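re: ur question from earlier - yeah i can do the single chain one, its not a big deal. heres the input i used so u can compare w yours
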Amino acid sequence: MPTQSASPAPVAARLTSLDALRGFDMFWIMGGDSLAAAFGGLSQSDFVKGLSRQLEHCDWAGFRFYDMIFPLFVFIVGVSLVLSLSRTIEQHGRAVAVKRILRRSLLLFVVALFYSGGFANSWPDIRLLGVLNRLALCYFFASLIYCFVPWRGMIAVCAALLVGYWALMTFVPFPDVRPVEDSGRLISDRLTATNTSQLNWTSTNMLKGVFEPGLNLANYVDQKYLPGKKWDKTWDPEGLLSTLPAIASCLLGVFAGLLLQNSRIDDRKKVTWLFASGVAGVMAGFAWGAHFPVIKKIWTSSYVLVAGGYSAILLGLFYLIVDVLKYQKWCQVFVWYGMNPITVYLADNVLSFRRVATRLLGTDVKAFLDANVTAGFGDLVLSFGEIGVGLCLVWFLYRRRIFLRL
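and the output i got, formated as tokens:
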């Protein structure tokens, strides 16, 4: 593993492979998922339908391709912060880097609140934590750790976050807040409450080592202490306690960034390191999952290893093809997305690419295609339209050299 000081942080050219991988990740968020669903609806092939299901989240435990989209972005944030902060520290010093970290984290958190509706809704119908909020928190803590902790210490911090989260989730007791009938019997074996006021706050029955939806320590912490709107009624998948292992996901990206930054290691050996560590992470994660299930919605430690392992493999593959072998034309579309990820994410939130495409290709056009070509073909064309709207935006921004960054 490369050290933080083994090779001075070079002021190197931007890694095209990292931009392409970031854009590849964004593509599935910006319509790639609906395109896969449309193909799955058209096809009678079990294979095609199985591929389509990979673009859907698991309901709870398990892992599909779409469950990797968010942690892959967190991983990429870790890689990127190494490359950017190394340059800042070398040129301006650590104090300037810390100011930059504080400014970017705060701005991203504010943007996240705007994304979730801002102050258009009255309190408490405002979501304080979400996808962009988690990115802001992961960037903030991982960046500070990178600035002040040597790489061996970072490994220890990452391990402590993963093991500590497992220990908390497994051994710390919490009240069974499932609602009960007047007779004292549970209304349901599962949590059915739609808001926190329905929870059984007087419960004296304590649980531990339970990993059910809404009935685990991470969700209980949200139910008890997270104010505002929760995405899943009484708890949030980007909640308070599960932010700890998410920081570890970002640190895994930091380790990959340190590897790519180290000029003493041959490029092909870097690829080997990424592939080998990725396979090891996936295997270790699924093995751990036998005792601490792989669950995205509470970001379990096993999930961190599985998602981080696949992220390292993907980074290695993109780095090999794009930056080592120099095959770059095929990924240009992904680079367009990858150079303006937050911009296109916010634009879709405000404008809704799907809504724009529907105004052009929905209603009568969709009905005509479904009736005269085949049922479901209208959805396929609509999905291509959704992707096309986003693609036009990122192409225009790239062509005009407009790169909006926090």
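The first strand starts at residue 174 and ends at 175. not sure if urs matches, ping me
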